Amino acid sequence: MSQPTKQHITGIDIKIRDNDSLSWYQYHLMFLESGLSFEYIVGNDVINKMSYDLETSNKLMYSIDDLNIPSWPERVIKVFVHDSDKWIISINYSDITSVSVSGSKSSSNWKTLLSVLFSYGIEINDGSEVSSTTVIPFPAYDKVKSEVDKLKIELSMFVLERDDLVYVECKNIEMAYMLSVGGLEYKAFELNCAVLRLKRKIELIRAKKNRQEKVVLSAIEEILDVEFAEYQVKLDEQIRKMNSALDRSKGKELTDSESRELKKLYIGIVKALHPDLHPNISPEKIKLFLNAVEAYKNGDLTELRIISEMVVDKKISLEHTDALVLLVKEKERLSELIKGLKEDI
Predict the structure, then answer these.
(1) Which residues contact 168 (CB under 8 A, 6 or more apart)?
(2) Do residues 136 and 326 touch, judged by C-beta distance below 8 A?
(3) Kind and range of the H or E element at 147?
């Protein structure tokens, strides 16, 4: 009687629970006809991907098969994952069957598996060996951090471009316009309002006379004041713009060198204090950032220099086991912010 053919492993999924949250790190191994494919996944992002030749793939598959993972004295998952579980291993076989086991990081079987994988260049970090002074070499951490740093620079440049348009270029154009034709525009609008008011006054007087009512000019003026209140608001706004343009024209004009320094300082402050780049920034630093925005609006180079000296660049520490997860989330958040800024500009 022939022996049944032993089924071989086709895939392994390893999930490790994060120490400080309910999220999981995921490592995916696929044993293909061409060789082994390995992926390290955080959330929906593939952080690291490697390939191995068929010979190496077969050796690793046999080494893992020899561990007889389904027989480990841990917990075979039937319905749900237990709260105390720190890792989950799911194994798929060529006959389409699968088995999942879970357990704690202190398991000797678990450590043996990590050792086997490490011998083939696959490093799975479960945090169990980490001391308070150890820096964790997460796979592809530097790659994601580099991408996040680039996004921060890109975001700060878009913030500068937007603020330069809103607070500098547009204000300069408005100032030039108001100083050249703003006075004439105000006078024309004022005369137009006066003409419309007189026409309306005549209409009200005629209406009173047609109804044979007594004409009280003071009462008619009160009606006109109410009806033309919106026009007066527009006139006042025009005066405000003119005053603003006059004040701006009296300000000290920066040299090209000073303008470049102003922008450079502002970019540095944006990187260090902008709430979009630092969601958990303190109220005091938000106020400091708003002061920097006002200084940039006014071309106050001295104040920007002072604020620039105060701010310190904050970096994400590698001492936390969730540092890579935080970086991936930060990358997604910054990408969305940049998309929104591009639409605004």
Answers:
(1) 296, 297, 299
(2) no
(3) helix 141-163
pLDDT grade for 120, boundaries at 50, 70 and 90: confident
> How many CA atoms are closer than 13 Å to the CA of 267, on its beta-carbon side?
15
Strands 36-42 and 24-31: antiparallel
Segment 228-283, tens digit of pLDDT: 898 888 888 888 888 877 766 666 677 888 888 888 888 888 888 888 888 888 88
The Cα 103–Cα 89 span in angstroms is 9
Domain extent, residue 318, equals: 142-344
Which CATH number belongs to the domain containing residue 65 in this structure? 3.30.1560
Residue 155 and residue 204 share a domain:
yes
From CA 193, how far away is CA 231, in angstroms rounded? 7
Give the tens place of pLDDT for each residue, 57-105.
Answer: 888 888 888 888 877 754 444 444 455 678 888 888 888 888 888 877 6
Supply 295's token pair: 């200084």
pTM for the model stands at 0.38
Q: Which of 120, 106, 84, 132 is nearest to 12 (CA)?
A: 120
- Separation CA 152–CA 162 (nearest Å): 15
Same-domain status, 146 and 114: no
Query: What DSSP element (H or E) covers 12?
Result: strand 9-17
Domain count, the chain: 2
137 part of a folded domain: no
Find, among 305, 330, 304, the residue nearest to 315 by Cα: 330
Task: Give the end of a domain, one of 68, 98, 129.
Answer: 129
Degrees, nearest 5: CA angle 320-326-327: 110
Beta-strand pair 36-42/45-52:
antiparallel
Is there a single domain that holds both residue 151 and residue 284? yes
> Which of 79, 95, 129 is the last residue in one of the domains?
129
Residues 271 and 224 placed together within one structural domain of the fold: yes
